[in-house]
Each structure stands twice: as C-alpha cells, then as structure tokens.
Request: fold
Amino acid sequence: MVCPHWLSFILYNPLRKAFTDRDAVLREAGVGKDSTILEIGAGNGFFTEMLAERAKFVYAVELQEGMVKKLIRRLGKRGDKVKIIQGDVSAYEPGSEVADVCFLYYSFHEVEKQEDAVINIVKAIKANGALAIFEPTIEVSRRAMDKTVRMFEQKGMAAETRRDGIFTRFARLRKR
Reply:
C-alpha cells in the first residue's frame, strides 16, 4: 500500500532522522558528487534533500500530487538541482542512460506494474551505472527481494552486493 500524503509525517520526522543514517545509505547506494540520480518514490523528500546536496542532479519521481507539493516545499533553494516528475515509474520513461545511480528506498514493493517499471529503470541507467534498492523487511520477504533482483538481472543488471538487516533488505546491481 502506498503511504497517503496525509500520513507523510511518518516518513519524515525527528525519530526517523535519528535512527536512519542517511549518509551511510547514500554511500552504500554509490551516490557521489558527480552522480546524476534517478530517485523512484521520492515521497516528501526524506532522501531527496540529501541527494540534492550530495549529487550533481536528481530526477525525483513521485506518484502522489500531495507528496509532490510537500517535496517542493521541503527542497526550497535546493530545488534547482532537482527535477520533480509526478507520475508512475511504470508509465514514465525517463530516457536512455540519464542516471549514474537509480535510488529506490522502501518504494519498489509499492509499484503495481513492476515489470514495466524494471524496463524503464534499466533503460534510464547509464552503462556501468548502479541500481540501489532498499526495502523494509516487515513488508518484503527474502523471497520477494530475490524475485525483484531476478527481474532486474533478466533485463541486464548484475547483482553486486546484497544484505539483509533487521529492518532493511538491500541490493546493489550494476548495469552490464
């Protein structure tokens, strides 16, 4: 279930900020100062604001209009480094090889048409670019994460690293 915009305070609050090492997440994802990022499921900007500070440019895709409005307010002056796209990644085609890193944090399991989304995401990642998928263990089983990784592998990505933590499952893949 997609988190409705009126519940967005659970996505961005002091407790979550205290318990989520966003710097470590972005390092693990492979985000660098020269990176162009495709963020899927930007929500109200919990990671988007940091991506805008650390990367060269961010394409932030968000499905819900209410979240997009909150994201615009949150970004403020950092918004010049972010292009916000309101839409579903399974229908939105970002273009060919536009991103060094595609960043999905707790979002891919909410995509309805995952196979279509995989095609668009892989197409958008540059050669040798990275795909970083973080999913909540409470909602995504190991088997479901394996299925997600396989879908991307079948479209030209190669698994680079995997880990299962208490709260998060993570996979980083690289475009062959």
Notes: The radius of gyration is 15 Å. Residues 5-175 form a domain with the Rossmann fold fold (CATH 3.40.50.150). The longest strand covers residues 125-136. The mean pLDDT is 92.
